[in-house]
Automatic annotation (TrEMBL):
The protein's name in its UniProt record: Beta-lactamase-related domain-containing protein
Pfam families for the chain: Beta-lactamase
Lineage: Bacteria, Pseudomonadati, Pseudomonadota, Gammaproteobacteria, Vibrionales
Transmembrane segments: 12-30
SUPFAM superfamilies xrefs: beta-lactamase/transpeptidase-like (SSF56601)
Signal peptide boundaries: none
Sequence ranges assigned to domain Beta-lactamase-related in this UniProt record: 82-366
Source organism (scientific name): Photobacterium frigidiphilum
Length: 400
């Protein structure tokens, strides 16, 4: 015979199960709405450095962008700290989110809160800035071409296996298929971290051997970006920060930035360390949409822009994403046809994607240094950005 207490216990057990389920269903089907009473499409900054337009004037559906804003605001676990959209050289959407970064134990400063005049660590986006400066030197003919042997610039250094490395060219360094014996990802004993912790990053790299023939295999290796940064310094006679400021940042009116140096040598490294405002991050995408031209000044050639936006190879055979010249190329289709999309990406969720056919730039900065979801920005593109301009059947495919 069932006692009254048994009914009470059964009811409590059912409540423990059903209440969370009901809450989840309520959140999914009746999501909270962000307070829009003080909402503005773009924000005030100290620099008046972007032309501003309302979303509908550039072909966006405002309601879809508001849905995007609501979604990002409520998904704090993704640690999105800023989100910007430009189209037709106009800033149309600019939002900042007061979300703290996850702590990853590195000594890198982490400015908070995110705002129009707050710079953000770019991590490996620095690599694409370094490659852009190589493009600038090619345009100025201070570097002849990307078939130039990389180690010709390091003739006086003590380099392990130099004979084997003589066939490594600048193009191999740009595409990360140099053959250097370098393990950076998913490694407890990461060469990237060991390089940063060493007394001399360049000496650490020079002491690494060769694992493959140049051009044979694509392996992500920040070492090549460090050496390209060294090439820039040797060619120009300036440190990397000085030349970036002279050749790139000044023309683009990028003044509020920083570049974290190696703690022992004080070197600015071409692989990481750069800090940019989100607005300035977006300018880099616009520069490539402009094919190297900014306010009438040419930074690099049209040929460099076109070559940079072509994938060269893959790091993972099971994934669709490709790489080349320090750009990433995800696989997104529109009505079954692959869309041309290219991105600068940095650890923790620093993302800037351009879609040349749509004259569109999409910027995200994040603090997900421990729990990054690399697919999330691309899901936002297909679920919100593209539908907001009438492209409703886009699909992102991460794996083959």
């Amino acid at each position: 015979m069932i006692k009254e207490n048994d009914y009470i216990k059964l009811g409590l057990r059912i409540s423990v199960i059903l209440v969370p389920v009901i809450l989840i269903c309520w959140i999914v089907f009746y999501p909270s709405k962000v307070d829009m009473s003080s909402f503005n499409w773009t924000q005030k900054a100290s620099q008046n450095d972007w032309k501003v337009s309302l979303p509908e004037q550039e072909g966006f559906d405002q309601n879809t962008l508001i849905d995007l804003h609501n979604h990002v605001t409520l998904r704090k676990s993704k640690r999105i700290q800023s989100l910007l959209i430009t189209r037709n050289d106009q800033l149309v959407f600019e939002q900042y989110y007061p979300v703290r970064s996850s702590i990853d134990g590195t000594p890198m400063p982490d400015p908070y809160p995110s705002a129009p005049d707050t710079y953000h660590q770019m991590r490996s986006v620095t690599k694409t800035i370094t490659s852009t400066l190589i493009g600038n030197l090619l345009y100025k003919k201070e570097i002849s071409d990307i078939d130039t042997p990389l180690f010709d610039y390091y003739a006086n250094e003590n380099i392990l296996d130099l004979d084997k490395k003589k066939s490594i060219k600048l193009k191999h360094a740009l595409d990360f298929n140099s053959g250097l014996d370098w393990k950076e990802w998913e490694e407890r004993n990461s060469d990237a971290m060991n390089m940063w912790l060493s007394d001399d990053p360049y000496s650490y790299i020079f002491g690494k051997g060769i694992a493959y023939q140049p051009g044979e295999k694509f392996v992500y290796q920040g070492a090549m970006s460090v050496l390209l940064g060294g090439v820039i310094e040797k060619v120009t006679g300036m440190d990397l920060r000085q030349y970036a400021e002279t050749a790139l940042f000044n023309p683009l009116e990028i003044s509020n930035y920083d570049w974290f140096t190696h703690e022992v040598t004080g070197d600015y490294l071409g692989s990481s360390g750069l800090y940019l405002r989100s607005r300035d991050f977006a300018k880099l995408g616009q520069l490539y949409l402009n094919k190297g031209l900014w306010n009438g000044e040419r930074i690099f050639s049209e040929q460099w822009a076109e070559e940079s936006l072509k994938p060269k190879g893959k790091f993972w055979p099971e994934k669709t994403i490709e790489y080349g010249h320090n750009w990433w190329f995800p696989f997104i289709t529109k009505d079954g046809e692959q869309l041309t999309i290219a991105g600068m990406r940095g650890a923790g969720g620093q993302e800037m994607f351009i879609i040349p056919d749509l004259e569109l730039t999409f910027v995200i900065t994040s603090g997900a240094y421990i729990d990054q979801d690399e697919d999330y920005p691309l899901e936002l593109i297909v679920n919100y950005i593209l539908p907001s301009i009438g492209i409703d059947h886009a699909q992102y495919q991460s794996k083959i």
